[in-house]
Amino acid sequence: MEKIDAIVIGGGLAGLSAAYKLAEAGKQVILLERGDAPGSKNVTGGRIYVDPIRKYLPGIIDAAPFERHVVKEMITVLDDTGAVAFEYANAKWRQEPYMSYTVLRAKFDSWLADQAARKGAFIIPKKKVENLLWEDGKVAGIKSGAEEIGAHVTIAADGALSFMAQKAEMRGPHKPQDLAVAVKEIYQLDRKVIEDRFGLEGDEGAAGLYMGSLTQGMFGGGFLYTNRDTLSLGLVLGIHQLALNERGFDAPSLMESFTARPEVARYIRGGELKEYSAHVISEAGIGTMPKLVRDGMLVAGDAAGFALNLGLTVRGMEFAVASGVLAAETAIEALDKNDTSAAGLAGYEKRLRESFVLPDMETFRNAREVLDRKRLFTVYPRFICEMFDELFTIGARPKEGLYTSAKRVAKKYVLNMDTIKDLLAARKL
Ligand SMILES: Cc1cc2nc3c(=O)[nH]c(=O)nc-3n(C[C@H](O)[C@H](O)[C@H](O)COP(=O)(O)OP(=O)(O)OC[C@H]3O[C@@H](n4cnc5c(N)ncnc54)[C@H](O)[C@@H]3O)c2cc1C
Asked: Is residue 187's pLDDT more than 90?
């Protein structure tokens, strides 16, 4: 079979970063993307942390079409009627190089595709890879419709569900508890309105997270990011719990209730809904990571389960970029040595271990187990809101001493064995 150097499956950040690096090294590379264009099918919150990936895309990453650099974190804890909001800002986030930016994937992915194409990568949209080609037990390329393309190395960067890693027998079928589903809306607003509503200047941005009653006791939370002249707003929910929930909530109706909350509605008021999307998120962590390498094939980005949702920070994009680049570097070395067997590609895992990718995945190995505790989404938000309610409510009856009130509310919610168990579990984070 005639073979090119490399095929990349999927034009998200992992695939595009891999194609860019391979083409930069002078390798023949074809990237196949099932969407109308790279980025057209991709959904993110989203905010990207750029500090970890500057060295992986040197010279170009700071010219990327990001939206706003984030200078402010906003956390809102909700119960059925109340809300407690925390804000954290730091002067250092106003200084270049900026740590993180809000991002719209349609723009960012299409820009990265242009960079890869300029280096010589062939980016082919509207091409869904349906199967892999095999030669003596080794992955030897892909099938798309009637077309077959042979390659010495295939990189699966086909996102969280990665049917290609499954077809290559590098992982089994997903379990529902390893995935979350997200719905996202994008609202257009005048940029000055956004800056005034969030207290921002110029290109400064804000990142908001919401937790508590909005998920009706299920694993998950809400997010809100300021873009230049749009807001990205969404809800993440554990698929497993969504399927089991007896009260029959579905993601769109929970999203509707979320956007109707005054703590959200005041930001999107007057905005035009431009986009609605839904996507899965890998929540499994390193415990269910697939095999990263087999003869002729590497897996990168969400396809390898490289994503970390710690509630306060959501990370996946920088893992996608870094693992895509490291997969490409491994492939380049293997192609140069004319050995693209599993042994020839084994350096990928070593590269990932020497980067931030596997160390961070390892450190937060138990994140899902710790965060998947119902009380985090029910008892603690109610406790926080009721505590503030007690402090700030002045009614017709004489007021109880503050300490007495606080003790009574704490006793009702958190002075018990369950809290101790939760604290013990939290040590694993
Ligand atoms: C709602 C939501 C919020 C998120 N928020 C954040 C955030 O704020 N910050 C952050 O860092 N991360 C966030 N993430 C995670 C982040 O978006 C992902 O980790 C990241 O997009 C992974 O990039 P990827 O290239 O591996 O996969 P993807 O971006 O999913 O790209 C995979 C690509 O492969 C293509 N594809 C799939 N199958 C085939 C096939 N058979 N043939 C051809 N093409 C195929 C798809 O069309 C897609 O373009 C969020 C995710 C979601 C869903």
From this structure: yes
> Best substitution site from 280, 317, 360 to test ligand 1's pocket, by max atoms within 8 Å of Cβ?
317
CA of 378 to the centre of ligand 1 (A): 29
Asked whether 221 lines ligand 1 (CB < 6 A), one says: no
Region 173-202: what's the mean pLDDT?
Answer: 95
Same domain as 183, residue 319: no
Q: Mean of the per-residue pLDDT values for the chain?
A: 95
Residue 326 located in a structural domain: yes
- Residue 11 forms part of a structural domain: yes
Q: For residue 260, count other CB atoms closer than 10 A to its CB.
A: 9
Burial code of 222-244, b = ≥16 C-beta within 10 A, e = fewer?
A: bbbbbbbebbbbbbbbbbbbbee
Name 417's Cβ contacts closer than 8 Å, sequence gap at least 6.
Answer: none
Tokens of 138: 């080794």
The H or E element containing residue 131 is strand 131-135
The pLDDT tens digits for 271-285 are 999 999 999 998 888
The reply to whether 154 and 36 lie within a common domain is yes
CA distance linking residue 324 with residue 315, whole number of Å = 15
